[in-house]
Design goal:
The chain has one helix at residues 44-50; strands at 7-9, 14-16. Strands 1-2 form a two-stranded antiparallel sheet. The radius of gyration is 25 Å and the shape is rod-shaped. Strand 1 and strand 2 form a beta hairpin. By secondary structure, it is mostly loops.
Length: 66
C-alpha cells in the first residue's frame, strides 16, 4: 500500500497533516520531498500603493461633495 501525505517537520518529528491508515508500530519507508513555501499575500497597504492613485496631497481637505 502506498500513501502520499504532507507533513511538517518540527525539528524532531515529522507530523502528518492528515491521518494515516496504519496500525501503531508499523514500519514504513519514507521519501522526503521539500515542498515550496506559500508566499504571504501582499498587504493592503502594499496593494494600495501599487495602484498609483492620483489626487490632492491631502484628500481630506475637501470633504464636501462637488
Amino acid at each position: 500500500m502506498t500513501q502520499t501525505v504532507e507533513a511538517v517537520y518540527d525539528g524532531a518529528v515529522l507530523r502528518p497533516e492528515t491521518a494515516l491508515e496504519l496500525e501503531p508500530n508499523t514500519r514504513v519507508r519514507l521519501t522526503v520531498e521539500v515542498l515550496p513555501t506559500e508566499a504571504a499575500p501582499p498587504s493592503f497597504l502594499r496593494t494600495a500603493r501599487s495602484l498609483d492613485l492620483r489626487g490632492p496631497a491631502d484628500w481630506s481637505a475637501n470633504t464636501e461633495g462637488s
